[in-house]
Amino acid sequence: MANDKRKRDPIPKHFKSLEEAADFWDTHDLADYWDVTQEAQFEVDIKRRVFLTALEPQLAKKLTDVAHKQGISTETLINVWLSEKAQEAA
Prior knowledge:
Layout: H1 18-26, H2 57-70, H3 74-89
């Protein structure tokens, strides 16, 4: 509505973090700011692909426990172990 005079918070010029931007947009509707937006041109080069695989809950817990004891993420542990197993199979 072009004649709508509702009071709205200004969009911050710079967000200090991605989390701050997310917090702002979680509580504000872009439709209320459409008149101050502009078209943006950009390219995205995604180099990493993520594949999700379901794990049995008990196995996931065991893997998380082992990874924690080794001081690494569960994702890293699984990738290392699967890489080793794939190399053995090749």
